[in-house]
Amino acid sequence: MTVVDDRFAAANTDEGPQELRSRSQLTAKEVLREVGAVLRMSESQAAALADIKHDAGEDQTMIINMGPQHPSTHGVLRLMLELQGETVLRCKPIIGYLHTGMEKTGEQLTYMQGGTNVTRMDYASPLINELVFSLAVEKLLGIDGDIPERAVWMRMLLSELNRMSSHLLFMASNGMDLGAVSMMLYGWREREEVLRFFQKVTGLRMNHNFIRPGGLAADLPAGWRDDVLDILEKIEPRLDEYDVLMTGQPIWRERLQGVGVITADEAIALGATGPILRSTGVAWDLRRDMPYLKYAELDFDVVVGSYGDAFDRYAIRLNEIRESMRIVHQIVDRMPSGDYRIQDKKVTPPPRARIDESMEALIHHFKIFTEGFKVPEGEVYVGIESPRGEIGCYIVSDGSAKPYRMRIRPPSFINLQTLPHMMRGGLVADAVAVISSVDPVLGEVDR
Amino acid sequence: MSDGMTEVQKTAEELHGCPVIVSLGQRVLLVGREQYVSVMKALLDDTFDLCVDLTAVDYLLMPNRVVGADIKPERFEVVVSVMSMQKHERLRLRVQVPADDATIDTLFDVHPGTEALEREVFDMFGIVFNGHPDPTRILMPEDWDGHPLRKDYDFGRIPVQFKGSPA
Q1: Considering only residues 358 to 377 of chain A, which have any Cβ-Cβ distance to chain B shorter than 8 Å?
Q2: Nearest chain A alpha carbon to B123
Q3: Where are the strands (E) in A188-338, listed by range?
Q4: Is B87:B21 a contact under the CB 8 Å cutoff?
């Protein structure tokens, strides 16, 4: 390997292997940490850990790789599992195979272009990534209170539809991972309905760059209301079919109930959010508890589980699709008229028709797309509820047209830390169910 | 559009002996490196039980910035977001970390969920977390040179390094 630059020679960092090490290389304390004794546990919980064999001899255990090329790992997640027979004793996720330096790229793109970057992180819910980025930029600009009503409601409509499509994707992949292959077809079929609507509105099925600082890229197309109602009408009975196919089915329940259990204390200690936290019975949803946009005006329920197992996480997501549909119904009824973006010359390009007749508009258009707009100095953090948990955006601005630092708080990356704790003591076959129930998007984990 | 927005507004508020500033309506606690872990423990007792995010910023290109509350700016800043689910409140901590001694104590004992986040900050910025149980890289290959999110790490000029490739 070549050293790129002398400057980095001092920072040459071979800090040892990232892989799961064998027991002979670890101290007893390290083994206990890897099986999860470090969490903020009560004494009885810690005592329960002692029931799990972590003193297994080296000759009885085997360390194997699961992934990165494994169909159930949702991309390029690599898990190193220490097995004793069929039982998982320890597990370590190894990530980074999809790392493309998107946070570094974000520092090179103007605020205008930033949306194209963040939308590619969590590719299952791109509109929500764009939303959190736009909200952070608007807060830095001080225009967060001036966004037109219609733009706010359109943003809510798109994020709820995106939550539905993301959860439908989960339904598909979760079914496939557990052997219900027909479920994969159904899940993709329903998701396709939503994506088709996105294509009509934004021009693209994924990676839309549609929600932008200041509002949205375009207004909703004519006939959008019928399209949305059509989707809701189609999906409603199909969710009931899922109930017949999976929820009530004994094989499905046997496969998921009691698998990958995590307690509320563990989930909070590990920073887990979203359906993982809610499956433990903690009713925490940023849409309700720290409302952004106009969620405070909507009527919806936060779905919680009670056992913290893979079945709860499945059921929560299924019912969150229903809740999102309830929200979409309300949004369709209440969608206000007005402008879809702020009319602020600083951030809004001139309308296309003006460019043909006005030299100033042409210059303005050219400047805003080449140089972008300057954002006042400051730092801000905005967190919203993505289908996977809290997605946050921390931006530091130095007063130029590009962010000085652009950080996305990736929910999947942090939720992935719960894997070793959910898998401990379970079977290898259940490992697939556990990965699936965390629903990681590796594009966001690695960024 | 608010004109003449200052980056930070000074307030007289203090929390656990550290100054609190307000940045665009959000409360930010400026903590010294020495008190950092003990303040986090105190905050945990104040129901700030969810550590939402831990990241860092390299302020190499902004040496004259104003941190607020007469805190001396350093090259690195570790930024921690915590949340109280009980009080529905967020709080951000900013810790100055000097370039010549880029180390800070680990939060692992207070918030085990910062394990991966601290590894990421180490990987991207080269800030060492004292006492971290697994101080390895997380996103970059383990034999990578340099820390990509540092401001002196050139952008777009690094040839692709393949692990174990012949030089």
Answers
A1: 376-377
A2: A13
A3: 211-212, 215-216
A4: no
**Degrees to nearest 5, angle at CA A99 with A94 and A103:** 125
Do the beta carbons of residue A246 and residue A184 sit within 8 Å? no
Of A52, A50, A49, A56, nearest to A24 (Cα)?
A56
**Does B166 map to a domain?**
no
CATH number at residue B61: 3.30.460.80
Nearest to A96 among B55, B139, B147 (CB): B139
Q: What is the ipTM of this complex?
A: 0.85
The answer to whether the Cβ–Cβ distance between A95 and B139 falls below 8 Å is: yes
| Total number of domains in chain B | 1
Token duo for residue A126: 């791109």
CB contact under 8 A, A96 and B117: no
- The answer, for A108 touching chain B at a CB cutoff of 8 Å, is yes
Residues 92 through 121 of chain B touching chain A, CB cutoff 8 Å: 92, 108-109, 111-117, 120
pTM above 0.80, yes or no: yes
Total beta-carbon pairs less than 8 A apart between chain A and chain B? 170
Give me the residues paired with residue B91 across strands. B82
Domain containing B61 equals: 14-130
Let me know if residue B154 belongs to a domain: no
Evaluate whether residue B1 is within a structural domain.
no
Least confident of A42-46, B107-111, B133-137: A42-46
Q: CATH homologous superfamily of domain A102-344+373-446?
A: Cytochrome-c3 Hydrogenase, chain B (1.10.645.10)
pLDDT in tens, A259-303: 888 888 888 988 899 999 999 999 999 999 899 888 999 999 999
**Residues of CATH 1.10.645.10 domain(s) within chain A?**
102-344+373-446
In a domain, B167, yes or no: no
Task: Determine, for residues A417 and B23 on separate chains, whether the beta-carbon distance falls below 8 Å.
Answer: no
Residue in A38, A285, A292, A405 to test binding to B, most B beta-carbons within 10 Å = A405
